[in-house]
């Protein structure tokens, strides 16, 4: 009597193949962006690291002429960098994700490349680039300025992870809104102009009036920067910081952005 056993489909193998294909696609998109954005400039990708590094040092030097004494410690450049670096990481990730569909639009016509691949490629590349800049900058500051800081890497790494995560959430929402409503990019740019000052890059929450503190507490970047400074200044407690609040905001933005982009990404790409 012939056997009637039917072997089950090899589902794990197909899933594994898809995962490898997705990884290869993301790496290819990252390499494409590196060659497209920096391939023709002197120094290539190295310029992606030197440009923000130099810009931060120039701004720090300029502000140090206006603000003689930092709010924490004895080095203004360290105080400024602990605020500017997480802010720059957030801003860079958010802007790159917001433009991910437009940047990779020609490649998204191929079935093997998805909108999520394009977003993840830009997220990973910009996060890694900013982390290299941050590592080089703080290493240089701590060696040259001799601040005597005792670092606590837990708060520092948590703050940087939260900044990137928050940038991902904001970027996904802006990718959706700017794709459906082209004027949104300009509106968002106007709305967020004061964000540099309203995020605590140059100030401490504790030195602001109580009424202002109550309003700015809802800015998740203020929590991120406060947590970053807690890692560089052992005596600074930053009791207002709520990691759970930042995670909740990031999760809400990411979830909403992912769900809506799954629904509307074809409409955005067809315009």
UniProtKB/TrEMBL annotation:
One of its GO terms (biological process) is lipopolysaccharide transport. One of its GO terms (molecular function) is ABC-type transporter activity. InterPro entries: ABC2_TM, ABC2_TM_bact-type, ABC_2_transport. Pfam families: ABC2_membrane. The chain crosses the membrane at residues 44-66, 78-98, 118-144, 156-180, 186-204, 239-261. Keywords: Capsule biogenesis/degradation, Cell membrane, Membrane, Polysaccharide transport, Sugar transport, Transmembrane, Transmembrane helix, Transport. GO terms for cellular component: ATP-binding cassette (ABC) transporter complex. The keyword Membrane applies. It is a multi-pass membrane protein. It is found in: Cell inner membrane; Cell membrane. PROSITE patterns: ABC_TM2. Residues 43-264 form the ABC transmembrane type-2 domain. The keyword Calcium does not apply. Belongs to the ABC-2 integral membrane protein family. This is Transport permease protein. It comes from Paenirhodobacter ferrireducens.
């Amino acid at each position: 009597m012939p056997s009637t056993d039917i072997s089950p489909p090899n589902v794990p193998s197909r899933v594994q193949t898809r995962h490898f294909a997705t990884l290869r696609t993301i790496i290819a998109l990252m390499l494409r962006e590196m060659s497209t954005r920096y391939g023709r400039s002197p120094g290539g990708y190295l310029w992606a690291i030197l440009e923000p590094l130099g810009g931060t040092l120039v701004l720090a030097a300029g502000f140090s002429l206006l603000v003689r004494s930092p709010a924490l410690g004895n080095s203004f450049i360290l105080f400024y960098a602990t605020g500017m670096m997480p802010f720059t990481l957030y801003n860079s990730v958010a802007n790159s994700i917001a433009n991910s569909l437009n940047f990779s639009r020609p490649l998204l016509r191929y079935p093997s490349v998805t909108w999520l691949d394009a977003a993840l490629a830009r997220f990973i590349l910009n996060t890694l680039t900013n982390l290299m800049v941050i590592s080089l900058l703080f290493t240089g500051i701590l060696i040259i300025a001799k601040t005597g800081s005792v670092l606590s890497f837990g708060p520092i790494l948590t703050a940087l992870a939260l900044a990137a995560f928050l940038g991902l959430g904001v970027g996904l929402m802006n990718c959706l809104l700017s794709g459906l409503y082209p004027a949104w990019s300009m509106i968002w740019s106007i709305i967020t102009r004061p964000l540099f000052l309203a995020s605590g890059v140059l100030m401490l929450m504790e030195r602001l009036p109580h009424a202002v503190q109550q309003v700015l507490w809802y800015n998740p970047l203020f929590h991120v920067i406060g947590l970053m400074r807690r890692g560089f200044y052992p005596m600074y407690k930053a009791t207002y910081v709520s990691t759970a609040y930042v995670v909740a905001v990031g999760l809400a933005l990411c979830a909403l952005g992912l769900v809506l982009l799954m629904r509307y990404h074809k409409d955005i790409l067809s315009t």
